[in-house]
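writing this on my phone so excuse typos. first protein, seq and then structure
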Amino acid sequence: MFFKGLTSSIIDMLQTIVLAVSIFMVSYLFLVQPHQVKGPSMLPNFNDGEYLLTEKVSYRLGEPKRGDVIIFEAPQNKRDDYIKRIIGLPGETVSVSSGKVYVNGKLLQESYLPADFKTQPGAFLTENLQYKIPDGQYFVLGDNRSHSLDSRALGPIKKKTIVGRAWLVYWPMNLTGFVPKVVYAGM
């Protein structure tokens, strides 16, 4: 009797462990994934060392939007992920002129940045170049333009490299909250 009860308890415990691991794996692979912000490229909105949850569902059901903060595979090393903000969508033109970003010839109003922030051109997107974003690709910039390796140097990113959308900051606890959605006036 003792061994029968012990065996039953062990089987129950194993079933619980297998169920918990299965739920975790499904969630991790298809729903949400933790990421850490590394470096200053998203200051002042995301700090080095912050942890956030990336949701992976919305881009399976719809398209990325301008202003979304996304996580994507780094072009140079697929094992690393970058966090940047979508500025330009497929088919649009993007340019940098006199420290400002323009989309389809209109000044991009970036309320999430300090007014004195300047956007310098890069090796890919040079000053006053009107670049048309190809289908299935997105133009991304870090919020801290002077310390960000982004589409100005690397070119646009492909949708298939996008891991998901930054959804929730969960560490440190004093910064816990949902990542705010950005709406661009006139775009």
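second protein below, same order as before
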Amino acid sequence: MIRILIMLITVIFATHSNADMMRMAVTTSFNNSGLSEKLLPAIQSDLGLEVQLLIVGTGQAIRLGKAGDVDAILVHSQKAEEAFVDAGYGTHRREIMYNDFVIIGPANDPANIHDTNSAAEALRAIATSQSLFVSRGDDSGTHKKERSLWSSAGIKDADLGSWYRAVGAGMGASLNTAAGMGAYILSDRASWLNFKNKTGLGIQFSGDPVLFNQYAYLPVNPQRHAHVKHDLAVKLETWLTSQRAAEIINAYTIDNQILFTFNAK
């Protein structure tokens, strides 16, 4: 079993001891994007609310929500999110923002995926050439998307040979591994743009509509766990779907490139 490391990062911006506080599980890709560093101070300033982030993969975030260890989750795997709500662990699912996934690879593009016409074609080219590919392998939203893409490409588990390396790590650590190995990897665009160790790697494929990457907010159901701070989760949701949040999210850029697009309704 892959060991999942849970990083608990407490972000404290309060100047008084009786400030409201809640816990939210978020994906490593969201954290790696740097957006939390823009959102959390604004939340503290506007709401007087301290948010403790548990930074994990989507699968682990959902398990934390099921256990009542957090008050809300912010993740990016619609099928798993809907199952979470349908099972009564979350009160509802609210879409907040989106970006897209991209396939990162070595500058010399050994599988020649740059000119392919679809994500499925790109992955088939990687498999056919047996070019090194790093998978997060951690049940995250990115990992779930990657697995679905392989399936759509007609590539079965038995076809994933020694060239396929599952590392069981978060987005930043997996990108570092890919950089060290000169391998391909699926990444959300925001994490890639904020990634510092880009030497030798670049976006080799993007633009297929199947690579759409939606983030959603799910409050944990207080009927399952009476101790969760549902009032604060709702308060945060109201802020996350506000014009104030939209302005911060849409204005967040790196090298003049937009990382997320707000689409809450």
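The chain has ten helices and 13 strands. thats all i got for now
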